[in-house]
Please model this.
Amino acid sequence: MSWVILFLAGLLEIVWAIGLKYTEGFTRFWPTLGTGLAIVLSVLLLGLAVKEIPVGTAYAVWSGIGATGTVLFGALFFSEPASIIRLACVGLIVAGIVGLKLFSPS
Model:
């Protein structure tokens, strides 16, 4: 169950990272409120996950999910660069996440 919680925390990290774009420097109330809520929930879920998953592993997976999702979302919806090199680097992040999951003691 801790891995499911960690995955949800990672998805919420994507939400708040993308949400930052919509806050326009924290000048828009509703996007700022939603982004703040996503930040709090993401960190709370991360905190729950580290009860059973080593903190280094959990943090790396959490930030990896967030980074991967944010890059892909940006490429798909914000016309950010999606070169072969960038996508290969995202693939390396995903490989690292899978490796950490496969070789985690919990």
User: Anything to note?
Assistant: The first helix runs from residue 2 to 23.
